[in-house]
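Blinded run. Sample ID left blank on purpose so nobody reads anything into the name before looking at the predicted structure. Input follows.
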Amino acid sequence: MQVDGQRGVLAFSQYVIHHNMKKLLFLPILLLGLAAAIAQPTITSSTKIKFQEGDNTWTATVAALQAAMGAGSGSVTSIDVSGGTTGLSTTGGPVTTSGTITIAGTLDVDNGGTGQTSYTNGQLLIGNSTGNTLTKATLTEGEGIDVTNGTGSITIAGEDASTTNKGIASFNTANFAVTAGDVTIKTDGVTATEIAANAVGAPELVATAVTAGSYTNADITVDADGRLTAAASGTVALGSEVSGTLPVGNGGTGLTAVGGNGTILGSDGTANLYLSPTITTSAAAIAFARNGSNLELNMPNADASNRGTVSTSTQTLAGAKTFSSLITGSAGVTSTAAAGAAALFATGVQGSSWVAETATTTLDETDNYVEIGTLSAAATFNLPACNATRNGWEYRFLKTGSDTNGATIDPNGSEAFHDGATTKTLYSQGMSAMCKCKWNGSSGSWFFQTF
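Blinded prediction complete.
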């Protein structure tokens, strides 16, 4: 049956539907096949294409797809490759349609290569500042170290040490202990027997090498700790077994005899000597000085020019002194005023001693303030002699008794008061008087004053 054009397709479809309804299911497939047989249309920029993204489906033109993809234009007609300054070269280019470009040569160091094409066993690449490149070299062995170069391997081995060759030495476990690299000698690890037999390779420690004076091998032994001792006593006696004098340069004194009782070891600037401590009292600064075999400590008596000691003789001490405790003068205290200071200045109350009298008495240096109590009869109070020693002495009197008996104050011997009176008498209670000795250089008299 021939089918011509669309009219024929329609007629054929009607025929199939009318005569063979059971085959209706295959009609769309047949229609598609027939449509393919018909000349297909040309795709243009306005041709629409179906798109789907997620649950969304739509159609767009080919022009819209080209715009979204950024379609460009142009063509490549020739391709070539260059090795530049890398040390590589290329062949086979340029390629115009198809072909192969081949790279050959050795990639240099500046571009990440090695610059080398061949090696021998054990060679390493080592940086070389000359030319900023890599140089082939092998490890060089030294004394006590062996280097073996193999195929793809380098073996470094240490040689055993000997008396003629440096190398690796091990410690005898019977003599030494090694912990974390710390080497220690075991207790009794090196014995006297090993030293004497030269077992540890130290001939300078062998007992036969110790020969001094009258000592022989039988006199000297070496204990388990390697110490030299005298065989008989176990020690070397300095007094009887060692002779000579240890000099100062070796920690000794350089002396061979003990100094005298109480002497001390000193120096004269050249050598040691024994000195006897002594004391001098020269009027100079306190100091030590060597005088022959004496070490003198100068302790002068203090005076107005030098510090020193307080002696039992008369002294003049310079400089202000402050006493924080009681000062007692058993033979009197004399003070001289200065232009800017009173002879005596008391900060606070002043005191003096007093004595109570009720009968005739003679006053002396122990009296000061005299209280005249109740008199049963007239009484006389005799003053001491007014002389150069007592010049300025004062006595004070106060009559406290209510009696009317006279209390007569009488200067010594032929002395009188300043007004020529030979006596002064106090009668009434509450009367007070003061007597003061005045020495004129040849004779004395008493001032008298009542209050």
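Unblinding after everyone has recorded impressions. Residues 5-19 form the longest helix (15 residues).
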